[in-house]
Each structure stands twice: as structure tokens, then as C-alpha cells.
Amino acid sequence: MRDRTIGFAVTGSYCTFEKAFTQMEKLAAQGWKILPIFSFHAAGEDTRFGTAAYWIQRAEEIAGTRVLRTLSGVEPIGPKKLTDIMLVAPCTGNTAAKLANNIIDTPVTLAVKSHLRGGRPVVLALSTNDALSGSAANIGALMNRRHYYFVPLKQDAPQLKPNSAIADFDRIEETLLAALDGRQIEPILL
User: Fold this and answer.
1) pLDDT in tens, 30-88
2) For the chain, where are the alpha helices, taking DSSP H only?
3) CA-to-CA distance for 101 and 110, rounded, in angstroms?
4) How far, in Å, CA of 163 to CA of 179, rounded?
């Protein structure tokens, strides 16, 4: 099972990059093939959490292949059946909104759309400060769509950020395996 290829798409929730990349390393060590994909922001913004060049290099070392970070680079994913499952980790509220409203203007959203054309599963590991407010409608819309699965999530700092939620990144592999079987692991909200 684990000889399958994961499209590992990274969007701009920079504070969760370390968690996401730790999981990327674990998945690769378990035998999953990784196809790294970065949004324009993930591939181009230096932050207090690290430079874009650092994260790109780290992903390429883990995957043993170059990061896809252009629209033309990700377009063949679906037609060439390059991925068995697509993981967006972290998935920002902005990316979830674009997917919910079919706005396909980034490497990650196009990778997901291209992958979905074959009816294959997409797993979202959400990380957004407005999951329980502004992003809630988009998350709900995606939860009702076929082929979308969610890594269980919880409020990350309810006293300071009552609308913020983050996926339990340690449950990514469990979610991937269930999604490949057409199942959503429960509970989604921890």
C-alpha cells in the first residue's frame, strides 16, 4: 500500500511547516513516494519560520525530486496519473476557499483539480485562524464534496484565537490510508 505516490502540496501556513515537513519525512521513511508541490507563497516567501529556499531544499531532499511550483508544472498530474492521493498540508483557509469555489489559480489548487479529474482522493490538513468563522462555510462545502477527506482538527489556542483550528499532523498517515479506502476517519473535530 505504501508504495503509492502522494502529491504533498504545501500552502502558506508557515507556522506549521515544521509539523508538515516532519510528516513528509515520516511518510517517505515508511515507503510512500512523495511528489512535492508548493503554492506561489510557500515557494516565494521568506518568513521567521525559514526561507523559501530552505523549505524547497528540504522537500527536494526528502522526496528525491524537484518541487513543482508552477501551473504548467502541476497540470500533467491528472492526465498522467502521477499521484494516487493528494495531501494539502498545511491547507490555509485561503486555499480551502479557492477549492470550495473552484478558483484554480495556484500550483496547489491546479494540482488538486488535475488530480481530482481521475476521481482520486484529496486529504486536507487545515491550519487557519478563521476555521470557525470566515472559513467555516468553505470547509463545510468541501466536507460535503466527494473525494475530499480531512485530517482531524482542533482549536489550537481557544483563549487567544477562538476561531482558529489546526489539523493533528500526527494523524496524516492514518487519514491517507482511510481516504484510499474511501473512508473519513472520525471524529473530524477533536
Assistant:
1) 999 999 999 999 999 999 999 999 999 999 999 999 999 999 999 999 999 999 999 99
2) 17-29, 40-44, 52-63, 71-74, 93-100, 107-116, 136-143, 172-180
3) 13
4) 27
C-alpha cell at 59: 522537500
What is the structure's pLDDT at 2? 62
- Yes or no: say if 96 and 133 are a contact pair by the CB < 8 Å rule: no
Domain that includes residue 161, residue range: 5-180
CATH of the domain at 77: 3.40.50.1950
Q: Is residue 136 part of a domain?
A: yes
CA 97 to CA 60: how far, in whole Å? 28
Residues 6+ apart with CB under 8 A from 183: none
Record the pTM.
Answer: 0.96
Question: What's the CA gap between 170 and 53, in Å, rounded?
Answer: 25
In a domain, 60, yes or no: yes
CB 37 within 8 A of CB 10: yes
Is the Cβ–Cβ distance between 177 and 170 less than 8 Å? no
